[in-house]
What we know:
This protein is of the alpha+beta class. It has one domain (18-124). Helices cover 29% and strands 23% of the residues. It has three helices and six strands. The protein has a six-stranded antiparallel β-sheet with strand order 1-2-6-5-4-3, covered by helices on one side. Helix 1 (18-29) crosses helix 3 (73-86). The radius of gyration is 16 Å and the shape is globular.
Amino acid sequence: MIRARRAIYYPPPPACRVRDIERQAAEQSRRCRWPVLTMEEIERFVDAAPWKFARTMPHIPHWYCLLEKVEDKLTFCRFARHIRQFGYKKPFGRRIQTYFDVREHRYWVMDADVGDVVLINRAVNE
């Protein structure tokens, strides 16, 4: 009998989660809190971020951006927290998801704890 192999989960490398980036930035600047992002900063970030189509879910078309691929990691972290703090709640399947709209897209993060976020999702608003 041949056993099917289970996919192995590899945790993200060090300093590839929101809490790690924020901790490093706080150590460097001696600040633990950053001002809330302005819409101009958010738009600049989403325009510059490397969005990749989620090809494993073509039935739910959306894109994602990985923290490890972004140049401005601190703005990524601030935007992830901004989504949770200022977003609106909407059901998605059996879950309640927090979304934040910028222009024609809506953005969301999946992790329960924002400190564990490694990617931000976006989709075109209906």
